[in-house]
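re: that chain from earlier
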Amino acid sequence: MGKLSKEILTRGLDIQWSSYARFERAFLDQELCRVLAAGGLRMLYFGMESACQRILDLMQKGTPKEIFGDVLRNTAEAGIMNMVLYFVGFPTETYDEALESMRFLLEHQDHVTYALAGRFMLEQQSPIYQAPEKFGISEISPLSKKADLTLIYDYKTNAGMTHEEIQQMQEHINERTRHLHSLQLLNRSHLLLLGKEYASRQCAHEKGAGALAQMGMWAKHRIP
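^ sequence. v structure.
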């Protein structure tokens, strides 16, 4: 990303772009974040998945939770909007572990543009499907009678929340973080337009939750 942004700046191009990203230590470099923003990066889609380190390790995500907050702050203050992508119900995840993700988002909401809790789905031929015992899964069965066409499977675990508890937890978290859902219906082109406006406002030092709320109002009135 850094090389791309520098090349855009060197050529004097007016390009707005977005990217999926992990919570990498490279984003702890504030100067890099400013270069990315100057090079037209307007939105980062961060695959957080969970804010519980045990769950992250079980996923073999390879990202340390302790850097998440600093990464969000550095990119947001550089003028880069973000979407934090995560879900509840990973096999063996407990009630308290799921709440860690919600508490993290509320604690760092001043630097979160958008976040919405999804729900874990067991996909055919995924690493979890192929080695269920490593993830506490005791039984796998097709969701559909047309098993040959099934991509998502039902499952039972030896520990953690039940499916009903997962559904309740997802609804609870999304209710508590509803103020972070304002960009849910915007397409990518609109998000880039919004990101450009956000970057200009960050340059004018309009930071924090108040600035993000203003951006939501701006989007409501300016984007059809």
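The longest helix spans residues 188-203.
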